[in-house]
Amino acid sequence: MKFTIERSTLLKILAHVQSVVERRNTIPILANVRLEAGDGMVRLTATDMDLTIDESVAADIGASGATTAPAHLFYDIIRKLPDGAQVEITANDGRLDIVSGRSVFNLNCLPAEDFPGQGDGDLPHKFTIGSAELRGLIDRTRFAISTEETRYYLNGIYIHASSGDDGGQKMLRAVATDGHRLARVEVELPDGAEGMPGIIVPRKAVAELRKLADTTSAGIEISLSDTRIVVSFDNITLASKLIDGKFPDYERVIPTDNDKLLAVDCRTFEAAVDRVSTISTEKSRAIKLKVDAGNLTLSASSAETSSATEAMEVDYDREAIEIGFNAGYLLDITQQIEGSDAELLMADAGSPTIVREAGDLSALYVLMPMRV
Amino acid sequence: MVHNSLNPEIRRLPEIIVNQIAAGEVVERPAAAVKELVENAIDAGATAIDIAVRDGGKAQISVTDNGHGMTPDDLLLAVERHATSKLPDDDLVLIKSLGFRGEALPSIGAVARLTLTSRTADADSAWSLSVNGGKIGKPVPAAQGPGTRIDVRELFYATPARLKFLKTPRTEANHISDTLERLAMAHPGIAFSLEIDGKRRFQYWRPANDLLDNDAQLFRLAAVMGQDFADNAMTIMAERQGLTLSGFAGLPTLNYPTARHQYLFVNGRPVRDKLLFGAVRGAYQDFLARDRNPALALFVDCPADDVDVNVHPAKTEVRFRDPGLIRGLIVGALKHALAEAGHRASTTVSQAALGSFQAQSQAPYRTNTNHYAPRGAAEAVAQYFAPPNTGTAVGIGLPDLDAGPSARDEPFSEMTSGEAQDFPLGAARAQLHETYVIAQTADGLVIVDQHAAHERLVYEHMKTAMANGDVARQVLLLPEIVEMDEAAAGRISDRAAEFAELGLILEPFGQGAVIIREVPALLGQIDITTMVKDLAEELAEYDKALGLKDRLADVCSTMACHGSVRAGRRMQAEEMNALLRDMEATPHSGQCNHGRPTYVELKLKDIERLFGRR
After folding, report:
1. The whole model's pTM is what?
2. Do B527 and A148 touch (CB under 8 A)?
3. How far away is chain A from the Cα of B167, in angstroms, using its nearest Cα?
4. pLDDT attached to residue B365
5. Which residue of B has its CA nearest to A145?
6. Residues A301 and A361 in one domain
7. How many structural domains compose chain A?
8. Which domain holds residue B295?
9. Which residue of A308, B527, B534, B598 is 20 to 30 Å from B391, comparing CA positions?
10. Per the structure, how many domains does chain B have?
11. pLDDT for the residue B85
């Protein structure tokens, strides 16, 4: 195998694929990236067995063939080469020679045949979604993904087609929760997605997909089965196993009769929460909201008897309420709201509160209060 | 029996079989026989008991005492089943002696070759009686001084099945030694000796007569548990509702990986009881890492009718009428003692330090200067103590010490040594390696580990803050249902109120499950299922749920660790003094959260010894 390629082109795709490779591996070949040259294209593949990224780019092919090389090392070498340099890569006898200008590197390789193949299988559901829509689904839900491993079925984003039972349009929904808060975002259902099963996309795949989605403005093709998702656009293909579990029946925990509507200017509110919560240094970051007609008072106190309060004007005309929240969770949500007006729909100090952007029904956040 | 007779009659078992059955319970292994025989000797008022065993007790056990002895008639009665001198009023409620069941001798006699030789103080000769596999011989005259000697040969020869189940002689001998150690601890006034296969295993002397009870006790504990324990023991003394708790508990800095060094005695009877382990863990919770255990020996004295010792023939288990009271008493007394010992670091540590100082000072002297400069850490100390103390320390530059340890002297302008030395931890004099603070006290010097000490201070402050405020609780969006067996679920549900105080809100959920609705916010995202199951487990084991508190304390201590002064940070004189004053004012500042000492103290006389002045 032999090919020549411009350094920045190689660096770009190498950056994409190498981030899948785990730093520590018990299986040596998983630390490697697979290179394949042929038909005027070079194809790079990396995997951690659950998630595989595959990207091709045009190059000047000297001899076709395939091998694997240590991914992080390879990436670091290419990164440190000067901008604009041409890189000549040759594989022979289990070594990979990288030559650029006066620099010569020799890397130890493992045979390409040993590289785990992508699990194939029938992917009966196919649809295309705009990259902006996909970014929106991910961005506004991923903060709520659980990091706690025992409830593994919460370690990802649940994507499914809404039933439309409530008379509304059928939508494509993304839901994430960690048991303390929940985010639900929906976009119009793309053609072909009607019969798709509910799937849970694992956190790592979500993160990689989000990074790659930035590189394109084209439509993104999604194919899936019960157990696998394959996302492809331009010359990139990302394939991931899905979390094999049942996502909880989240509809049940979204309250429908919260009637205490608090309307705030989102940016003012966000800044105030951030300021007041400075005081609550402990991990729990408790903050208290006291609302009565037209007024909201935020307060926090810490164990060392420091305290903070801030008052702001709000739209509120129901009976007074006092409710505590984790300030970190509140900020996570307000950061998802792009518009200037946010609404909090409350019931009481022990029941879930709904947060949403005024006039935007596509995203909805549920936050459990904290008792302080 | 069933198979060779179609109509089996019910018949009374012969005495010998009855005794062999009883022996199965009373004498389960050689150590049990030793225990029975030694307890008899103790009940006979002996002041010296010598025990010799061969082949792990299988070949021979002999127990010789100088107690009141028995007459020939007594001898005959003693080997009869349920014959005892120890229940004068036939009252099982008020048991004041160690033995009472009257089972020991006949049981042993039923399974071994037993010889009793005894002489009362006023008799002119001794009498001897043999029992072989249950067959009782006739008393014959023998030669022996006052007291009783019991010889057991070929134990279990009459019950070969049991014989097969014995462990190696070494293991059995260790069990015997263990048993005797416990008995010796409970009876400091009696001298004990143990010989195994002709070799002396131990000899515990009687303490001198002029020692007070408490000192005698410690004297014996030191002999059994080691001088380390005696040096690092806190006296425990508490009384409540007729119960007396006494004994000694080790400082947290003296700790072990197992709970083997924890002994409980109830009315002079060694018992193994989970109650003790749970209570001890509760009391030391703050001071020791989860896998370290303190050493202690506690003696509970209670009215005989408050405790049932007749639970098991071997009497290692007891039942208290009010276990809660005993547990409360133990935890309370230990906590009290720990609080008082607040900043007393264990002397083992400073002894070890002293030892290494001494070793270091024997390093060869340098010849290229006219200063005698011992190497290593001692150097810094020597450097400091070399000049007469003037209160304002001045750095003394030894010419070839520039590459040496970074001892740094601080000018002390505002505090004269006179007043600062009056504080228990003295006045900070220098910082070594940016890690240790050296302080001068009225009668020595103190070396403080700045990180460990500050970590403990921050932790104590946080704990106080947590105890004063309510625990913030995060309500769960998806309540977690934890399934477990019904008993466990019941135990958890019963303590719901207790958990609520710590921020865990739960309710029973059908049979064999609980539903968790709110969790302590401090814990963040946690594995609730495992935590609750662990709690249930602990409730079953110790009747006490420390796990949740532990976890909260863990968070505090991690935060404390991150929030405290690190090793390697230079501290100003004022900072160092403030640290010392803070340590004096804070309870439990003598050890860090992991049971290591936060400081060691070297007395002036120890230092003088280093230089051969004493």
Report:
1. 0.57
2. yes
3. 44
4. 37
5. B525
6. yes
7. 3
8. 213-341
9. B598
10. 3
11. 65
